Hints:
Blueprint: H1 5-10, E1 18-21, E2 25-28, E3 40-44, H2 55-69, E4 75-78, E5 94-98, H3 109-119, E6 124-126, E7 129-132, E8 143-147, H4 161-171, E9 178-181, H5 194-207, E10 210-214, H6 225-234, E11 240-243, H7 255-263, E12 268-269, H8 272-290
Parallel strand pairs: 7-9, 8-9, 8-10, 10-11, 11-12
Antiparallel strand pairs: 1-2, 2-3, 3-5, 4-5, 6-7
Helix pairs in contact: 4-8
Amino acid sequence: MTDCAFCAIATGRAPAVIVREWPDAIAIRPRSGGVHPNHLLVIPRRHIADAGADLDSAAAAQRRASELVAELPAANIITSKGVEATQTVFHAHWHVLPREAFDGLLLPWTPQQTARSAAGPSTSTDSRINLIMAREPIPAGPSVFLAGPTPDKSAPVPSWRPEAVRLLAEQWTGEQPLAVLSPESRNGERADRYETQVNWETDAREAATAILFWIPRDMRVLPGMTTNVEFGLDATSGRAVLGCPPDCPNPERNRYLIHIAHRHAVPVCTTLADTAAAALALVTAASSQRR
């Protein structure tokens, strides 16, 4: 169809970031960036209005989406039919959406996010943990800031932070809920200005009871240059712990941070679970001192 945006992409008449191609379908990145760095759309090359319009074409596209999902540890495959089911582009397409524990994504995201925006952000992950993401209000009470390299859309890799949140939730035994402060944006919604993000991260680190630095150094996709500066600022605070996995791609780039950590009596760990435990030990000690 000449007026169909997805047909234009499928026939090469409109630009798109094509991640995978097959004879019957293509996989592209959403122009908006999606709600996850690895969010993909699988689009049939043949124009069909929705998943029920042409069963053979729909089955072929579903198969291609399943091929992508087979490469992921956890994911949603989502397709919609009709405005009432949140369909907005009437060329059938399948969302392939990687998932992580505590990623904060509500499904289907279009109406639920609208409702949540009207009511204010929902940060609860369970009764013991409040996940506070970038630029959201920072609550009082015990908290851990998750410092370290953040995946970039130009070289998307899975974030380590959902696993850190899971480990903190598993180990936290305090009487109050623990706020976990993440510099990653909820649903991939980036800051309007660079300074806004930097100021929030600075305020959140200053407010945190403990600052958990986890640095799985990979100079290709997780270089962590900003993290180096942050660790230098926080190493003498008495609130930092440092986690440096020895099996990361570039462990030699963490030697200086480990040396500085030892000079300032910052706990140094080699696993994320131990780093989470060390951070919670600081939180528990701070809570005991306030009693």
